[in-house]
Amino acid sequence: MTTQEKQLRILNFLFGDFDNNFHSTVFVGCLNRDGAMREMKYPIRNVLKIADLNFAGSCDYYVTANSLKCNRPRHSDQLFGLHNICIDIDLHNSDGFLNQKIFDDLKFFIVHDLELPLPNVFVRTGRGVQLWWHFTETSSKLLFMYQSCVQLIINRLNDIISAVDTLSGFNIDTMASRNVVGYFRLPFTFNTKSRTMATAEFLTEEVYNLVELFEGYCYDVHSIAHSSVVATSLQIQPHPQIGSKQYISLVRKRKKFLEDYCANRDYNIVGSRDLVMFLYCATVYNLVGVNYVMLAMQQLNSRFTSPLRQSHLDSIYNYVVSKGGLRFTNTKFLDYLPFLTDTERISYNTAKTTNATRDAVRKKTKEERNRRILELATQGMTSEQIAENVNCSVITVKRFLKSQNFSRSDRLREQILNMRNQGMTIIEITNKTNLTKRHIYQLLENNNH
Prior knowledge:
With 449 residues, the chain is α+β, with helices and mostly antiparallel strands. It has helices at 3-15, 96-111, 143-163, 174-178, 210-218, 245-263, 273-285, 293-301, 310-322, 330-335, 342-348, 356-378, 383-390, 394-403, 408-421, 426-433, 437-448; strands at residues 24-31, 37-43, 60-64, 67-69, 79-91, 121-124, 128-139, 170-172, 183-185, 190-191, 196-197, 199-202.
């Protein structure tokens, strides 16, 4: 496969599955040796033409991970569609031979980490790594979900890097990774600083769904039933089914903490507005009547130096309300805030909410869910079917099966062999399993090897 064909395959995966009628643009940046950046705009319908560029070896080429409105400047206010998450990791090490092993080590720990969603594309830029997660095109109104996933992926990657001595040379460029309209090195183009080609490889070609990724990775959804009582004011009125007074006290502290977080920055929080408003909405929902959540959001939003659009507030509000309320652990709550200082983290000092009876029930429920997942997977159900059956996300199902080293092909092969030993014909097996004859023969052939 030629370099152009490899690049075309990458572009087709990252951008080629979107509706050609969308009026959105992907930017390509060309940085010459004088430091001047030339920007080129490619409508989504023509994005594969990027591979036809005459790439000069004296320039560096970059591409945006997401799309912007047509013929508009490359600015976050002009964001149109969310397509990919890209995390930029630099390597501060000049030893080429050693670098190769370090890159392999990083990939090994990323692939085998049970908490981290598996990246689709692993790019070696020459002076570091870029990890791409691709999902079906999503409206920019769900930016709070995107930012949440980016932040928690960064946190998890930092945990991996800090836990493994051989990875100490890696450093995540958090500002670049959080920039939703930022540039990332275009795979299979020349890096003029390292004098090497940026190569890329697929780790998985599964296309994610941003909402499922957000729900499966960022938190466990705990639905909270609405109170039939409508609040008459914005004073604290806890829903009767939320839980203990201890939890209500915790939520009160979180509400004040978020308000102080904004005030301490003079309400200039452009880089974290969506995340703060999402947490604020989920927090206020647990304290006041549902009809007053939007009013509280609008009051805080009006203080921002650059307020969110009402359509963004509506998206956050509708999501939280559709889930019947959300609960977060203290760690998750703090991890959502990307610019939190150590002093703020310490001062948070939340109330303890340990409840042995509740925790035991949750543990038992989780164990029963996992047992059911394994049972249904053994029966041949897909991850999507299992998720619907046990009422959890597809990501949760896949992560659990991965932790159990579950192999569908091994289970199917075992079932087919049992059926053959019972005297069943290939036709009978086909009718019972809904597998094709070719698939059955392949499984039996692999067993012979």
